[in-house]
Design brief:
Distance between the termini: 37 Å
Shape: globular
CATH architecture: Alpha-Beta Complex
CATH class: Alpha Beta
Radius of gyration: 18 Å
CATH superfamily: Spore Coat Polysaccharide Biosynthesis Protein SpsA, Chain A
Helix content: 25-40%
Number of domains: 1
């Protein structure tokens, strides 16, 4: 596996966690291998700037400022390693210890991130979209605290729009009851051992999902949803930038 190790540039300070003396570590994986094909343009959207800072820098920065978090890993296409290293140096992101080469699918990138981390089974792993730059530190902290008591915790918001299922020709086949339907966000929090086993089962069964909690569900793990944040949007279209 190709990776860039930030240890050669900076030493990582060790922080004591506040879970009743627990020494569990908290680490973050940010998959950033997307090419932005739906967004358009020559540069992937995670490298575009908002307020003079790259979207990836804003997304990673929210985690970097939290003392409880020990390490951040970014999974990206190899051709963008130098660009990411520049972001790391410019922002003094010393907690970003590795950049690893991401896979074709999101879950491949996250699994590679898991494999490069040194963790105990009870350590907490957070997985966050590289293009959700407005997550608050308060919500991250809430997720960490919830993850200390649960195997899997994710943020979500109730769906307010009417939902329709359509066929291949875009004719409505069903109106979906939106009661108890949630739109799910990241970061998503897991126990390391549980998430790794869930990934290995999904890969062995050739199951593909769109988020990590889907892999946890497939393995029979209970997933707890806490209230998300309206501001925590995913940059998907050019209008989202504005």
């Amino acid at each position: 596996m190709d990776f860039f190790n930030f240890d050669e540039y900076s030493k990582i300070p060790k922080y004591k966690l506040n879970f009743s003396g627990s020494k569990m570590k908290i680490k973050v994986i940010i998959p950033a291998s997307g090419t932005g094909s739906r967004f358009g343009g020559s540069l992937p959207k995670q490298f575009l700037k908002i307020g003079g800072r790259e979207i990836l820098a804003l997304s990673a920065g929210a985690f970097h400022q939290i003392k409880r978090i020990d390490e951040i890993v970014i999974a990206a296409r190899k051709e963008y390693f130098e660009r990411i290293k520049l972001i790391i140096r410019k922002n003094n992101f010393y907690k970003i210890r590795k950049i690893i080469e991401g896979g074709k699918l999101r879950q491949d990138s996250v699994y590679r991130g898991l494999m490069c981390l040194e963790c105990e089974d009870d350590d907490i792993i957070l997985v966050h979209d590289s293009v959700r730059p407005f997550i608050s530190q308060e919500k991250i902290t809430e997720l960490i605290n919830e993850a200390a008591e649960n195997d899997c915790v994710i943020p979500g918001l109730p769906v307010s729009e009417t939902l329709k299922r359509v066929n291949g020709k875009n004719f409505v086949t069903e109106t979906i009851d939106r009661n108890n339907i949630m739109a799910i966000q990241t970061p998503q929090a897991f126990r390391y051992g549980m998430l790794r086993k869930a990934f290995e089962k999904a890969m062995a069964d050739k199951i593909t999902v769109t988020d990590e909690s889907g892999i946890a569900e497939y393995s029979g793990i209970k997933v707890k949803v806490i209230e998300g944040e309206r501001r925590n949007i995913k940059i998907t279209t050019k209008s989202d930038i504005y």
